[in-house]
């Protein structure tokens, strides 16, 4: 519906709807993972930035973790560096790692920071390296989506969070600043690792005991076999949907991240379409949840 077709009465009703939600989320930490596919165009980025600023001034504590897979892919292509994925993870040799860090912690991170600041917020760009926030370890095994067995693999500089130190995030997030984090971290020996952004966001949400983890992607949420949106499911339902093949491909690590975050104490995780304008506000501040809510 075009803006002008919405009556003043409807606008007021939508605003009033936000009150119980604002009360419910007062002082809550919300981790929002902004995926590379959801970044799309400038207009969407501006709307996303507005939503984040709106949450902050409404008394919530948003923490943004971003991806940038497609943007890394374009840069590697421009530099003639071949790239391949194994079970959703980018095989990362040293030259690829340099590009991944340059794109994620450089242009993408600073682009989101600038967009939030342009909407009146005060964003601080970080990576897992800053303040020793995330310590990474090399990924050496992966659960095979088909067999359910553990495969031993060598993906180069692909890591996973080994531990999270909350100090920097507590300081930044409890002020008027909004942390924006690139999913890069160093190992205890100082080597740089590339971490899948969903996995990284899950670890941050777990460590921060976030009330909500929102994973913004380019599909409406988790779809059933008839491509209908599953509006709500439990950890058990999620495991069944992976086992019976309803959830496949890139959705598997996403749903696994949700399960792990819930088991670490996050109250609810939502997978939703970041291409829907104001997806974050719709999900948190209206009665119309925007995607698939997964709870314990
Ligand atoms: N049951 C499912 N519901 C929704 N998407 C699914 C499902 N199973 C597999 N997918 C795939 O997962 C993709 C989302 O994962 P991915 O491409 O890794 O997202 P992102 O880049 O946002 O992290 C969807 O575009 C879709 O192709
Ligand atoms: C190890 C690994 O695969 N890292 C990802 C990091 C970025 C990411 O996860 O971005 P999206 O959320 O946009 O997919 C990569 O190199 O593409």
Automatic annotation (TrEMBL):
A Pfam family annotated for this UniProt entry: AA_kinase
Name the positions where substrate binds: 68-69, 90, 194
Positions of the record's site feature: Transition state stabilizer: 33, 254
Name the GO cellular-component terms: cytoplasm
Output the superkingdom of the source species: Bacteria
Q: What is its EC number?
A: 2.7.2.8
What the entry lists under SUPFAM superfamilies is as follows:
Carbamate kinase-like
One of its GO biological process terms is: L-arginine biosynthetic process via ornithine
Q: Which HAMAP family match?
A: ArgB
Record protein name field? Acetylglutamate kinase
């Amino acid at each position: 519906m075009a803006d002008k077709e919405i009556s003043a009465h409807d606008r007021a009703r939508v605003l009033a709807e936000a009150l119980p939600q604002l009360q419910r989320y007062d002082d809550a930490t919300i981790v929002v993972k902004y995926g590379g596919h959801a970044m799309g165009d400038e207009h969407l980025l501006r709307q996303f930035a507005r939503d984040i600023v709106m949450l902050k001034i409404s008394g919530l504590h948003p923490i943004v973790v971003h991806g940038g897979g497609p943007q890394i892919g374009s840069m590697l292509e421009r530099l003639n560096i071949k790239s391949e994925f194994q079970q959703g993870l980018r095989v990362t040799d040293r030259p690829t790692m340099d590009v991944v860090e340059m794109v994620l912690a450089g242009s993408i991170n600073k682009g989101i920071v600038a967009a939030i600041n342009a909407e009146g917020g005060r964003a601080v760009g970080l990576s897992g390296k800053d303040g020793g926030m995330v310590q990474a370890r090399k990924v050496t095994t992966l659960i095979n989506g088909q067999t359910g067995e553990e495969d031993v693999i060598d993906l180069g500089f692909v890591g996973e969070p080994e531990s999270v130190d909350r100090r920097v995030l507590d300081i930044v997030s409890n002020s008027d600043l909004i942390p924006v984090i690139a999913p890069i971290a160093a190992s205890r020996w100082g080597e740089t690792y590339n971490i899948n952004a969903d996995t990284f966001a899950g670890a941050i949400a777990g460590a921060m005991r976030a009330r909500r983890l929102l994973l913004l992607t380019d599909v409406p949420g988790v779809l059933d076999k008839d491509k209908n949106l599953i509006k709500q499911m439990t950890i058990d339902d999620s495991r069944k949907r992976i086992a019976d093949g309803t959830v496949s491909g890139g959705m598997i690590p996403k749903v696994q991240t949700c399960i792990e975050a819930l088991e670490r104490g996050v109250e609810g995780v939502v997978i939703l379409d970041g291409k829907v304008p104001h997806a974050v506000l719709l999900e948190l501040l209206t009665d119309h949840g925007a995607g698939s809510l997964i709870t314990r």
